[in-house]
Specification:
Structural class: mainly alpha
Bound molecules: zinc ion
Number of strands: 8
Largest sheet: 2 strands, antiparallel
Number of helices: 15
Shape: elongated
Order of helices and strands: HHHHEEEHHEHEEHEEHHHHHHH
Strand order of the largest sheet: 1-2
Radius of gyration: 22 Å
Oligomer: single chain
Distance between the termini: 26 Å
Number of domains: 2
Length: 308
């Protein structure tokens, strides 16, 4: 996990949000359609290709916000997101179904932790109470309804790994409407989220609301992958074209990362991530490993290179 900066591209995000709302209020300035407070139809409309999928649409914007080391990454597990695949989930940080007193209470929690939610987002039922004289008045609104506010939306992978039939995890919307500390919108994420040499994730500011997500992100496969990266990170390498790296080079990399002269002595849970010995050179594990190449650059791991 890492901090997602919702300020960097805010003016573009705000313009998309305003354009959508202006369309909703265009026919009848007093009766927007859909109502910005309708948790279902407002969001469904906002997902239409003309708002989401164009070159300047909000899908690209969210992916750009979550770009790190050259690729957009899942807000939870840091896996590369494939923008052309349908395998991405959009997630509301403040759950979209919230409203009323409960909504206010939860808004106070989220906005006290995440400045971008405080500065750019209002509960949709509160927004709906506003009245405008013309659609141009909407441009003066700084805070967008939480159901469609792009500051309240993040992108996750769908939790299933390409080649493994895994059950869903937090990346797959398993969280539902549970309250979570909005860690990915908090600058502290840079220092409070840590991974150790065994690939275990720790979040030191967890107030209890992140425990389930932390558990899911500490499944065996995740831990294995990150632990392999912890080791591979010791070796300085240009990994931008690692997908086509010859097997010989991969094996040398693993050997030097694990300080051994004999590749065969490495544990299966390590060795298999090189892709060695796979039927038809399928590279299943190699591809899986590389989907998480963010961990090569994760400062807690990369600092080993500086020392070496
Ligand atoms: Zn993920």
């Amino acid at each position: 996990m890492r901090y997602i900066d919702k300020y960097r591209m805010h003016s573009a995000a705000h313009a998309i949000n305003v354009k959508f709302l202006k369309d909703c209020y265009a026919d009848d300035i007093h009766t927007p359609l859909p109502s910005p407070a309708s948790s279902k139809s407002s969001y469904e409309d906002f997902k239409k290709p003309k708002y989401r999928d164009s070159v300047s649409g909000w899908k690209n914007l969210l992916l750009e916000e979550q770009k790190s080391e050259g690729h957009p990454r899942c807000c939870y597990c840091m896996r590369r997101l494939n923008p052309t695949a349908s395998k991405i989930n959009y997630e509301h940080i403040i759950p979209r179904s919230l409203s009323g007193a409960e909504g206010q209470e939860q808004y106070a929690y989220y906005s006290s932790h995440a400045p971008a939610l405080h500065d750019h987002v209002i509960m949709a039922d509160e927004f709906e109470k506003k009245s405008f004289a013309s659609t141009n008045d909407i441009e003066g609104e700084d805070k967008m309804p939480h159901i469609t506010a792009l500051s309240n939306l993040v992108v996750a992978c769908n939790g299933t790994r390409d080649t493994f039939n895994t059950i869903g995890c937090c990346c797959n919307g398993n969280r539902k409407d549970n309250k979570i500390l909005p860690i990915m919108l908090m600058e502290q994420a840079c220092t409070k989220v840590k991974y150790d040499q065994n690939g275990i994730l720790y979040i030191s500011c967890n107030d209890g609301t992140l425990s389930q997500i932390i558990d899911e992100l500490n499944s065996d496969t995740f831990k294995e992958i990150r632990s392999v990266w912890y080791h591979l990170s010791r070796v300085s390498k240009d990994i931008s074209n690692a997908l086509s790296m010859p097997m010989k080079e991969r094996i040398e990399w693993f050997k030097s990362a694990y300080s051994t002269t004999n590749f065969a002595t490495l544990k299966t849970e390590v060795r298999r991530y090189s892709g060695f010995g796979e039927k038809d050179n399928a590279d299943t594990y190699w591809k899986l490993l590389l989907a998480y190449d963010w961990f090569y650059y994760y400062p807690g791991y990369a600092k080993q290179r500086a020392k070496a």
